[in-house]
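Structure request: Phytanoyl-CoA dioxygenase family protein, Jatrophihabitans cynanchi.
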Amino acid sequence: MTALMPDAEQTLTPMTADERARFERDGFLIVRGALDRDDLAHARKAILRAYRTAEAGGRLGADRALHQLSAVTGCPELVFLLDHPATFRYAWSLLGWNVHVHHSHFDVHPPVTGHRPFHWQWHQDGGRQNRELETDPRPRLSVKVGFWLSDVSAPGRGNLLVIPGSHRTNWLPGPRRRDLVFPRPAGAVEVLAEPGDAIVFDRRLWHARSDNRSPLTRLATFIGYSYRWVQIRDNVGGLPQRLWWDGLTPVQRQLLGHCGDGSGDQAWGHAPDTVPLYRELAERGLLDERHPPLKP
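Returned structure:
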């Protein structure tokens, strides 16, 4: 595996006050040009290779699409996206240092042809969290970063649909069943993005994927960050035994669920000095009393 290692100084640049205010208002931020040409080519090549492997193994959907969970386990070449300098800064700025990647996936969606039955896809991330947590609004708990690896700069290319500001709304009007035709929610917009752009969004933001009716194949990958006391959904069992594990940084290992050498680091964060991301932020004076997750 060829690993693209992040620049620690850039990765550990906090989000600005203006960015934080816009994120709190809208529930998402668009990061233009997050991936440079080399990053983009590296990620595209790796995902297309994984797609061909899935195709050879008969693992594609009926529409020849691939929704591959556990992105780094399924495609180790994507490990550089975990703490990419253009996007990871938002994850730790919003959630703090006691985080890991709890959910990730990459997606390949060829053009949709012919009629497709209606399916209501609007949702908030988190699954059962959205039924079992009683507050209004529910807590953030996680943020997700999506990297666009194909051109979705025009509508109809499998664009992500979002409702700006909806992250503080617990329930969205919808059909009684997902197969009943229902109007698009008021205020919904299609995210338009160039290859290499990224989106950072609050898990509570109401969103959906639209059909790809263009001649292009839609490629994207999503990395979800949550607190280490939230169970990892990804299949990361046995990762320390993988041949490429030794080449990862301590922070990357933390993000993949590793709890250190037994000197105190564990998911509840009771021994901050032994947590790799805490140490990195502390060394650079980036712990911030104003934001609870970043308090020393």
